[in-house]
Amino acid sequence: MNGLLLLSSSRRKHKGRSEARNLFMPLIVTLDGPAGAGKSSAARALAARLNVHYMDTGAMYRALAWAAMQRGYALENSALIAELAREVQIVFDTGRVLVDGTDVSAEIRSEKVTAATRYVADAPAVREVMKIIQRKIGSECDIVTEGRDQGTVVFPTATVKVFLTASAVHRAKRRHQEEVVRGSGLTFQEVLESQSVRDAADIARPVGALVAAVDAVVIETDSLTLEEVVECLVSLVEETRQARGKHDD
Question: What 8-state DSSP symbol labels residue 73?
Fold first, then answer.
C-alpha cells in the first residue's frame, strides 16, 4: 500500500479532464516560511482559487506521529517510523485528515501530537520517505503545497516558489490569537518566546532547514490581509503560466 494519499472530492470528479495535462507538466506552487507567517491559510485559499489540491505537509507529519503513538512506537526509532510512513494510509479529503479510515483532524492538533511531531519531522530517514511520497503526489496532480523545505528540497523545480514571512511580533500575535481561540491559556510573551526557540531550531535543522529558495519570491505579510496575499499569489501563478505559454509557442 502506498504511504500517503492526497484526495479531494471537489477535484476527483475532474480527474479525467486534466489527466493528460498533468502527465506533462503539473502545476506545483510551493509556500515555505516560518511558523505564524500565514502559510496554511494562504495555501488553502490559493488552492481553492486555482481549483487544485492543497498539500499540508505539516499535517502529514502530525498524522504520522499520531499513527506511531497509537501503535506505541518509540518516536526516536526513525527506521521504524520511516517504515510506518510507507505502510500507513493517510488521506486528505475535503478538509479532513484520515489515518487508516479514522478522522484525526482534531487529534493531530493536540499538544501531545505537536510535541511528538518534532521527533518524526526531524528524522532524516523519515523525511526521505516523505519527500518521495510528496513528489509522487506532485507528479500526479496540480498542487499548492506548504512547509519549510518544499521549494528547496522536495520540489526544487516547482512552477512557482514563494517564501512567506512576517516580523516575529506579528507572527506571535497571530499564533497567540489561535491559542486564545483554543483556550490554551498561553500568554503572548510565552508564545513569542516559544516561537523564537522554534525559529532557531528550524533554521539550524540538518535536514529540511527553513531557508528561502534562491529563486523564491519573498512576500512579507505584516501589512497584508489574507485576501491581499492570495491575490498576489494568484497573480504570480498567472504570470508564470502566461510566460510558459509564450515559451511553448
Answer: -
